[in-house]
Amino acid sequence: MDQAYRHYIARMGKPPGPMLDDYAARVPEGVVWVLAEGAAVAGIIVLLPTTDCLLLDNIAVSPSRQGLGLGRRLLAFAETEALRRGYNEIRLYTHQTMVENQRLYASIGYEETGRGTEAGYDRVFMRKQLRR
User: Which of 10, 19, 27, 38 is the most exposed place for a label (fewest CB within 10 A)?
Assistant: First the structure.
């Protein structure tokens, strides 16, 4: 997480939320999936069930593995997992300064639903309607 998000600190003026999360506590909750390449972690995704959607809480790919389609693989996994659980929608949020992430999400069907400050971060909220 540290490697994937560190470059955003200068842009945001503080560490992004995912750098502060307690993943050791998240893993036993069954909400973390890891994309491994041998013994190395290439990517991670955190999916939180809610009453009406699956929340994509975090997604990160190791900088050395970015640009190889691993993030898209993780996003496709999230959609499959949401449908498997009976959800018709995935929601996520990203920081307003992470414009490249917003463009990626929009390019695969996410739409912006709002902006606001939450937990001390200026966020862009997005969702994707899923089809069975």
Answer: 38
Whether 32 and 46 have beta carbons less than 8 Å apart is answered as: yes
| Whole-angstrom distance, CA of residue 70 vs CA of residue 112 | 23
Smallest CA-to-CA distance from 113 within 129, 128, 127, 131 is with 127
Picking from 87, 90, 88, 106, the residue whose alpha carbon sits closest to that of residue 98 is 106
Query: The whole model's pTM is what?
Result: 0.92
Closest-CA residue to 57 (of 88, 20, 107): 20
Taking the C-alpha atoms of residue 110 and residue 67, their distance in angstroms, rounded to an integer, is 20
Average of per-residue pLDDT across 87-103? 96
Strand order in the sheet with 40-49: 32-37, 40-49, 54-61, 89-95, 121-129, 111-118
